[in-house]
Amino acid sequence: MKWGPLEQGDIRDRQRLDEVFKKYRPDAIMHFAALIEVGQSTKDPVGFYETNVGGSLNVLSAAMGAGVEALVFSSTCATYGLPHQVPMDETHEQEPINPYGRTKFVIEQAIKDFSAYAGLRAVMLRYFNAAGADFQGRIGEWHTPETHAIPLAIEAALGRRQGFTVFGSDYETRDGTCVRDYIHVLDLADAHIRALEYLLNGGETVELNLGTGTGTTVKELLAAISEVSGRAFPVEYAERREGDSTTLVADNHKAQTVLGWTPQYSLNDIVRSAWNWHSKTNR
């Protein structure tokens, strides 16, 4: 693997995890592995709990058994559920409305207990909508099957699929479609490095939102993709999708204060980098 050694396995396999931790003896870990698609979580909740809860508990247990005391955890704004205020800060009630959000919420609670009673220190990063690609085109989104809005719309613009489906056009938003806070993966990467440095310098357990603080509707997103690509593509509207929140926008002031982190990339940057990646990649 280009950026370091790769060990293949399954986080549900505790024995395999123990082997890897024994081999490398890390001082800290970043835990990203999970099932993430909200709609699929309503169809396969058992699989989501087995992986996101059972697998994550394996990771935490194996890591702590190997002497790891610092963890950066990939969490989600889906732990908040329906917004009581916009933007949402970290004190917002956590009332997830889908199995995906609930599995991440459960692990956040486990991490807090392990921090309080077992010596673990962790930064729980609640992502809003991660998007974009490396500007040099070295790496980008590639899901099978693809379920994320920006790759789906770009594939439609490239003629690789018949069109793009918008789920719900009757939300109480400025144009009737859902509002999301899109954050570039390079901004996320920067936050993870800062979170790791924070922990290695003795930082205590904390939860932090990672978003730009700016909301974009689905229609606005599609317009941005058409503008960057210079292409129109078919759009159809369908019923609301189970488990989708109306509006998810971050208040990121706590991350700015704790990590000294500020997002650098705009929605246009996100779309341009994604367009560059997908237009040069044959799926």
From TrEMBL:
This is UDP-glucose 4-epimerase. Coiled coil: none annotated. The gene is galE. SUPFAM superfamilies: NAD(P)-binding Rossmann-fold domains. Keywords: Carbohydrate metabolism, Isomerase, NAD. InterPro entries: NAD(P)-bd_dom (IPR016040), NAD(P)-bd_dom_sf (IPR036291), UDP_G4E (IPR005886). Pathway: Carbohydrate metabolism; galactose metabolism. Residues 6-272 form the NAD(P)-binding domain. Belongs to the NAD(P)-dependent epimerase/dehydratase family. Gene3D superfamilies: NAD(P)-binding Rossmann-like Domain (3.40.50.720), UDP-galactose 4-epimerase, domain 1 (3.90.25.10). The lineage of its organism: Bacteria, Pseudomonadati, Pseudomonadota, Alphaproteobacteria, Hyphomicrobiales. It comes from Ciceribacter naphthalenivorans. Transmembrane segments: none annotated.
